[in-house]
Amino acid sequence: MKRSDFRCLDRLRVRWAEVDLQKIVFNGHYLMYFDTAVASYWRALALPYHDAMALLGGDLYVRKATLEYEGSAHYDEQLAVGVRCARIGNSSMRFAAAVFRGEQRLVHGELVYVFADPATQTSQPLPPALRAVLEGYEAGQAMVAVQAGRWDALATEVRALREAAFVAEQGLPATLVEDAADAQALQLVLRNRLGMVVACGRLLEAGQGVARVGRIATLAAVRGAGLGQALLDALVAAAAARGDRELRLTALAGAASFYERAGWRRLGAEVFEDGRPHVPMGRAV
Question: Which residues are bridge partners to 92 per DSSP?
Fold first, then answer.
C-alpha cells in the first residue's frame, strides 16, 4: 500500500504522551491512530456517524484489528494515516490502513467491522445504501449533492440544522434560526448520499445586482471534510446563474481567513453583531 492508494488521509503530529521509553511511538497508539482516521473517513463520506447508523437501523462493531510494524515514528513528527474500504461482504467490511511519514510507510494493518443490531449485537446484512456510499467514495464520486429551493420546501431541515449550529452549539439567539427574510431568499442545502442535510446557506437579493450570503451552517459531525467550501461554491454558482454581479456577507472574525482563502475580500473594519466581532466581506461573481 502506497500513500497515493488512499483517498482519505488523516494528518496528525505525534504528541509527547504517545512516545515510550525507547523514544518512539508506543506500539498500541498506532491502533488509536487507525481508529481516529476512521472517524475522518466517516466525515469524508459526509455521514454524521451516530445519526447515520440510527437511520440505517444498526451499528458497526470491530471484529478484528491487526497491525504490522515496519518503522517507528518519533515525537513531534508529522504523520498521515490512510484509511480505505478494501472489501465489503454480506454483513462486514474490511478497512485497510497505513501510517506514513512522508511517503515512507511505517505501520499498516486492517480493521474488520460487522454491521449488527445494537440491541442484540447480532450481525445483519449491510444496508444497500451504506454499501453504495462506500463504493461511491472509493470510486472517487462526490459525497454530497446541492439542492436549491424555497423556504416552504426546506424549512424543516434547515431550521433543525440552524438550531443545532447556532443555538445549541454557539449559544446564539433563537431569532437566527428563522426570520422574515427566509421567505424571500433562495435556500441552498448539501445532502449526503443518505439524503441527510449536512450544510445550508441562503442567498438574499440586496438590489443593483448585489446579493447577500448568510445563515451558513455545517453539521458539527462532518466539519473538516470541505463541505464549507463546497457550499460556498454552490452559492456563488447559484448567484451567477441568476445574474448577480456581487456577493457580500458578514463573517465571524475568526472565520474571515477561511473566506479569504475562498476568494472573498474584507470590505471594512470589524463590527459587532450578536455580541461577537464580525468582518464585512465581498467578492465578484
Answer: 114
pLDDT in tens, 195-209: 999 999 999 999 999
Instruction: Measure the CA–CA gap between 284 and 34, rounded to whole angstroms.
Output: 42
Burial state string for 227-256 with b = 16 or more CB within 10 A and e = fewer than 16: bbebbbebbbebbeeeebeebbbebbeeeb
Query: Once rounded to an integer, what is the mean pLDDT over residues 155-176?
Result: 93
Helix (H, G, I), strand (E, B) or coil at 116: strand
Strands 210-218 and 246-252: parallel
**pLDDT tens digit sequence for 250-261:** 999 999 999 999
Helix (H) or strand (E) holding 130: helix 128-138
Q: Given the C-alpha cell 511505517, which residue does it identify?
A: 106
Element (H, E) at 174: none
Inter-residue contact 97 to 111 (CB < 8 Å): yes
Which domains, ranges and CATH numbers included, belong to the chain?
3-138 (3.10.129.10), 144-284 (3.40.630.30)
Q: Centre a 10 Å sphere on the Cβ of residue 88 and count the other Cβ atoms it contains.
A: 15
| Residue 18 DSSP label | G
- How far CA 34 is from CA of 102, 194, 232, in Å, comes to 17, 25, 31
Which set of grid coordinates corresponds to residue 84? Answer: 480505505
What's the rounded Cα separation, in Å, for the pair 31 and 107?
A: 10
Measured distance CA(13)–CA(264) in Å, rounded: 30
Of residues 280, 239, 272, 232, the one with CA closest to residue 256: 280
Amino acid in position 141: Q
139-164 confidence digits (pLDDT tens): 999 999 999 999 999 999 999 999 99
Rounded Cα gap, residues 15 and 12, in angstroms: 9
